[in-house]
Amino acid sequence: GENVEQHPSTLSVQEGDSAVIKCTYSDSASNYFPWYKQELGKRPQLIIDIRSNVGEKKDQRIAVTLNKTAKHFSLHITETQPEDSAVYFCAASDTMNSGYSTLTFGKGTMLLVSP
Amino acid sequence: DSGVTQTPKHLITATGQRVTLRCSPRSGDLSVYWYQQSLDQGLQFLIQYYNGEERAKGNILERFSAQQFPDLHSELNLSSLELGDSALYFCASSVSLTGAGATNEKLFFGSGTQLSVL
Fold first, then answer.
1. Could you tell me whether strands B64-68 and B74-78 are parallel, antiparallel, or unpaired per DSSP bridges?
2. B90 to chain A: nearest residue by CA?
3. Where are the alpha helices (DSSP H) in A25-80?
């Protein structure tokens, strides 16, 4: 099955700096890579996703890049703000033979943005 | 609010006991997923149901079982509880996203049930 490794486990930045979180996956058949943000005491929520047919996707201050050859993908947050402080999870979709898929999550990165 | 409802929010019980966690998916969603979240293991996939049938199974212990009912709500049963079962249990439902020749699922999580086994 799929294995997703996520680094770093914790990341501290100053407000306004950029933050980068990196993930690797093992199954070359994975084709969908979402990122979820979980604020303290809250539920995980999807913030951005990317499919294997594109290399980069942006949404305002958030961008995700994908390198299929190396089997890694990254989340980039620019101009970080204190409200970006949360745990971020990457995930990879392992498409099943039936055509449906399940998500395998990384262990998460706790991002702390200091004012 | 994601539209996924989980009850109870908190559950405190003793070792050896049995508990039932309940989840109602978003209106119209046929899939229900159960995840276990502990501090050192992140989000661990337990099991998935689709329209009443088991679709995929992850790292779910034999002491745990689940089902999805005709009205699409789901229950996760945890028995012979151990201290290590203390965790946050999330339920999620999903909407299908089709693209690049594949169908994948966008998950909507409930608020979770915090289980404490004492």
1. antiparallel
2. A43
3. none
What is the rounded CA–CA span in Å between residue A108 and residue B53?
Answer: 30
Q: Can you tell me which residue has the tokens 């999870």?
A: A89
- pLDDT tens, chain B, 118 aa long: 889 999 999 999 999 999 999 999 999 898 999 999 987 778 999 999 999 999 888 889 999 999 999 999 999 999 999 999 999 999 999 877 776 666 677 899 999 999 999 9
**Alpha-carbon span B49 to B70, nearest angstrom:** 12
Angle at A2 between CA B32 and CA B47, to 5 degrees: 20
User: Which residues of chain A have a Cβ shorter than 8 Å from any chain B Cβ?
Assistant: 31-32, 34, 36, 42-46, 49, 51-53, 89, 93, 95-96, 98-108
CB B43 within 8 A of CB B58: no
Q: Residue A112 CB: number of other CB atoms within 10 A? A: 14
| Backbone torsions φ then ψ of B38, nearest 5 degrees | -120, 165
